[in-house]
Specification:
Blueprint (H helix, E strand, L loop, with lengths): L1 H16 L4 H12 L9 H14 L3 E5 L5 H7 L7 E6 L2 H13 L6 E5 L2 H10 L6 E6 L6 H10 L1 E10 L15 H14 L4 E10 L2 E10 L2
Parallel strand pairs: 1-2, 1-4, 2-3, 4-5
Antiparallel strand pairs: 5-7, 6-7
Helix pairs in contact: 2-5, 3-4, 6-7, 7-8
This protein binds S-adenosylmethionine (SAM).
Amino acid sequence: TTQDRWNAVDQYVTELLAPADEALDAALAASAAAGLPPIAVAPNQGKFLHLLARVMGARRILEIGTLGGYSAIWLARALPENGRLISLEFDPAHADVARANLEHAGLGAVAEVRTGAALDLLPRIEKEPGAGPFDLVFVDADKVNNPRYVEWALRLTRPGSLIVVDNVVRGGAVTDASSGDPAVTGTREMFELVANEPRLDATAVQTVGVKGWDGLLVARVVG
Ligand code: SAM
């Protein structure tokens, strides 16, 4: 099937360019053992986030939606020694697994997981001296709040920063203006917000692979 061929290509790319290592394998195994849903980014997508952070020379990274810390490991590995990743997670059980995974990966000193609803945690981060501005924000939580997360990302970044939003294609459902799915309506509202925001210069690309047909939006903060 088409999905089988997408999987085969992801496997090919991953083996050559984004091979797993002990910490990444352990993070996925611990996440599965704890009953977390298998919805982390694919390995080659994690590597893509890692490369974006490297290209940005990111010293401060904000992630919204930690799950078991798989994407956080990829992102935090791009940080310099004095860099910092803050990741926000609503579910305390997910956050516990993520903290242990980050610690196991040797990233306990640079990566911090904060528990709570992101919309409650973000205003506190804004008031916290030295937390921002973030060089890169990765949005991957409850999709219904994507417009709010992009607004917050704008407040917590600087000109030149990068905002990445995951799962913006949703098997093509993003084009369905009559959708009643809050993830779709939230994503569409986010697209319109980004399109109408002069401080953002953005595009979105579709992706296929082990995660099916989806895509991500990338926005550069202009000023
Ligand atoms: N970024 C992760 C990765 O690739 O490894 C995957 C994140 S998963 C798709 C989404 C996560 O967002 C879940 O762990 C979920 O509990 C969390 N979440 C849902 N609603 C949230 C909210 N309001 N605030 C913070 N996190 C939330």
